[in-house]
Specification:
By secondary structure, this protein is α/β, with parallel strands linked by helices. It is built from ten helices and 16 strands. The strands form four sheets. It has an eight-stranded mixed beta sheet, with helices on both faces.
Length: 404
C-alpha cells in the first residue's frame, strides 16, 4: 500500500452522521446570525467555543474577530510545516428573502455568499483531524484559519497576514461555494481562478454656465459622458486583450436643472482584470486614460483608485492535491474543470506569500431547475456540500502529509 493510500485508511468511509447533523445545525445557526466584516464577534465566539470543547486551543486574531487554531503541533512545527485550511466568516449587507427556518434574523444582513458553509467545512475538518491527532495519526500539522472581513476591500486577509496567521505555513487551501456546480462535486483550475477587482471613483470639475452658451464653459455633462464611454475603450487598446482589463461604471451623477451646465460630475465603478501582471499596471493606465479624456473636454479630474484584491492564482501542486483528495474520497467523476470568474476573492493575498489553491464547492441541489446566484437574498445551499467539503479537506491534509 502506498503512503497516500495508507493515510486515507485513517479516515472513516464517510463523515459520521452524528457529526454531519451537528455541522448542519452549526451552519444554520451561523446563517440565522450573520455579521458584517470586522463585526463577527458572535461568530468568532461560537467557533472558539466548539474548538475548545474539542480540546483545542484557538487564538482570536489581534483584529478582535476571526481566529486560528493549530492541530498536531506538538512538538512545535518547523518553518513551513503547517497546512492551513482557510474559511471566511463575514456576511453581506443585503436582506435575506428566503422563507426557510434558518433565514437571517438580522434585518439587512445575510450569508448570501456561502461563508457560513466555508466556516462549517473548516470547523468540521478540524474536528476530524483533531481526533486523528489525538491518536497520533495526523502526518502533518494543520492550522485552521477563520478569517474576518473578506467582503471589505482590500479584504481581511491583509490584516490577518499582518497578525501572523501565515507564520510556519507551507501551503494553504480553501473552497468557495459555487451555485453553478452540483452538490457532491467540486470545480478546480490550475492558474487564475478569480479576477482582480478594484474600486474607482472620479470627480470632474469645471466653471459651469448656461446651456445656451456651452462654448464659453466646460460642458460638464458631455465631459462626464465622454469619460464614461471613452476610458473603457482606451484601456482596451493599451493592454493585451487577453488580460481582460475592464472598467465598468455603476454610477454617473451631474447637474440639477435642464438649463444649467453643472460645475461638478461624479462617476464610480470597478476595475476588473484576469491577469496578475496587468493588474499591477492598471492604476497607472486608468489614471492616464481619465486625465487625457477629461483634459480634452476642459474638465479637471480627481481620481480615487482603491486597490481591491489581485486574482487568486492556484499553484499547480496544490491544485493537484485537491484533485487527488477529491478523487480518493468521491472518485474522478466528482471533479469538473471550472472557468476563471470575474469575481474577486481576498484569498489571493495569501498566495502572494505561500503556495495554495482554492476549489469551487458545488452547492446546487441537483434536482432543482433554478440556480440561485451568489450575493442574492434568496441564495441557499444543498447542505450535502458540507460533508463533501469536510471530506475534501481531511483527505487533502492526510495526502499532503504523506508526500512531505
Amino acid at each position: 500500500m502506498s503512503p497516500d493510500a495508507a493515510a486515507l485508511t485513517l479516515l472513516p468511509g464517510t463523515l459520521p452522521e452524528a457529526l454531519f447533523a451537528e455541522l448542519v445545525a452549526f451552519r444554520r445557526d451561523l446563517h440565522r446570525h450573520p455579521e458584517l466584516g470586522n463585526q463577527e464577534l458572535r461568530t468568532t465566539a461560537v467557533i472558539k467555543e466548539r474548538l475548545e470543547r474539542a480540546g483545542l486551543q484557538p487564538r482570536v486574531l489581534t483584529t478582535g474577530t476571526g481566529l486560528i487554531c493549530d492541530i498536531g503541533t506538538e512538538p512545535a512545527a518547523e518553518e513551513g510545516d503547517l497546512l492551513a485550511l482557510r474559511a471566511d466568516i463575514d456576511a453581506l449587507p443585503i436582506p435575506d428573502t428566503k422563507t426557510v427556518g434558518h433565514a437571517s434574523t438580522v434585518p439587512g444582513r445575510a450569508h448570501a455568499c456561502g461563508h457560513d458553509v466555508h466556516t462549517t467545512v473548516v470547523l468540521g475538518a478540524g474536528l476530524v483531524l483533531a481526533e486523528l491527532a489525538r491518536k497520533q495519526r495526523l502526518p502533518r500539522p494543520v492550522r485552521l484559519l477563520f478569517q474576518p472581513a473578506e467582503e471589505v476591500l482590500p479584504g481581511g486577509a491583509t490584516d490577518a497576514i499582518e497578525s501572523g496567521v501565515l507564520d510556519g505555513v507551507g501551503r494553504i487551501l480553501a473552497v468557495h461555494c459555487d451555485p453553478r456546480v452540483d452538490a457532491g462535486r467540486i470545480g478546480i483550475r490550475t492558474g487564475a481562478i478569480t479576477s482582480a477587482c478594484d474600486r474607482l471613483e472620479v470627480e470632474l470639475d469645471g466653471p459651469g454656465g448656461h446651456t445656451a452658451r456651452p462654448h464659453l464653459t466646460t460642458d460638464m455633462v458631455t465631459a462626464a459622458a465622454r469619460v464614461a464611454l471613452d476610458v473603457p475603450a482606451l484601456i482596451s487598446r493599451r493592454v493585451d486583450a487577453r488580460a481582460g482589463l475592464a472598467v465598468t461604471w455603476g454610477r454617473l451623477e451631474s447637474g440639477h436643472a435642464c438649463n444649467v451646465i453643472p460645475q461638478h460630475a461624479e462617476l464610480s465603478g470597478t476595475v476588473r482584470c484576469l491577469d496578475l501582471d496587468a493588474w499591477h499596471q492598471a492604476p497607472d493606465l486608468v489614471h492616464a486614460a481619465i486625465d487625457e479624456t477629461a483634459t480634452l473636454h476642459g474638465a479637471k479630474s480627481q481620481i480615487h483608485y482603491v486597490r481591491g484584491v489581485p486574482p487568486v492564482v492556484n499553484e499547480a501542486a496544490s491544485t493537484q492535491l485537491l484533485q487527488d483528495a477529491m478523487a480518493a474520497r468521491r472518485g474522478l467523476h466528482s471533479i469538473e474543470d471550472t472557468e476563471q470568474s470575474l469575481g474577486g476573492e481576498d484569498f489571493s493575498w495569501y498566495l502572494e506569500h505561500v503556495p495554495g489553491a482554492m476549489a469551487r464547492l458545488g452547492v446546487h441541489p441537483p434536482a432543482d431547475p433554478i440556480r440561485r446566484d451568489l450575493h442574492r437574498g434568496d441564495f441557499d445551499v444543498d447542505e450535502q456540500a458540507i460533508k463533501v467539503g469536510v471530506e475534501l479537506f481531511t483527505a487533502a491534509a492526510l495526502l499532503d502529509g504523506g508526500r512531505s
